[in-house]
Amino acid sequence: MANRGKAAGKKAAAARKSSDSRAGKKWDRSRRVGARVPELGYYLIVTDTEETERNYFEGLRDSIPAELKERLVIKVEKARTVDLVRKALEMTGQESQYRIPWIVFDRDQVKDFDEIIKVAEKYGVGAGWSNPCFEIWMYAYFGEMPVIKESYTCCDRFAEKFEKATGQKYSKNDRDIYRKLVQTGDERKAIQVAERCYKRCVEDGKRRPSEMWSVSNVYRLVGEILNKIGFP
């Protein structure tokens, strides 16, 4: 009798376990996915260069305090300019529920500059663009974004500014560029300067990014990330 009761109890327990498993299958999947989701976000940044932009954002990623590194993830990838949006969408893929995709690129000599930005916005991909080049955003760390229309002129003038401020030569493949900017410049002021330049162009009736000199809305992406890690 006791054995029959024990067997019945085991059978009932097994039935409950099976039923709970079926009922909770979807929840369990969500919980497993949720365990991987960084609380502060998973930023996927796709850029069209192996140098400046990539080094800058990887430096920003590496500067995240150790206690937050699992809560805020930044992944930087490269793609051809014309493939930036497609690459961002492809890489978001199955993890679209928690990835935050951005593309980062320069005006420079890019054809369809405005169109790439429109397409990105259409598909929910953030567009961090700089006109004429990414160096104009880094220029803001030193308190200004002078009006410059040509990329090569912008790069040359930024190099002069950088050397004067840091005592070092500027190099596009400097993997330590982000740290140097933060240590010798003012990051909060850079965001304020860039935002002010953007708003000034809008007030002047300029609506297309290709018309805005000198402007970089990369400040939006950087500011968003910094605010999540408690930037003062």
Spell out the key features of this protein.
globular, alpha/beta, 5 strands
What does this protein look like?
With 232 residues, the protein is an alpha/beta fold. The chain is 52% helix and 13% strand. The protein is built from 10 helices and 5 strands. It has helices at residues 2-23, 25-36, 52-62, 84-92, 113-122, 135-139, 151-166, 177-184, 187-203, 218-228; strands at 41-47, 72-78, 99-106, 126-131, 215-216. The chain has a 5-stranded mixed beta sheet with strand order 2-1-3-4-5, sandwiched between helices. The protein starts with a helix and ends with a helix.
Short description:
This protein is α/β, with parallel strands linked by helices.
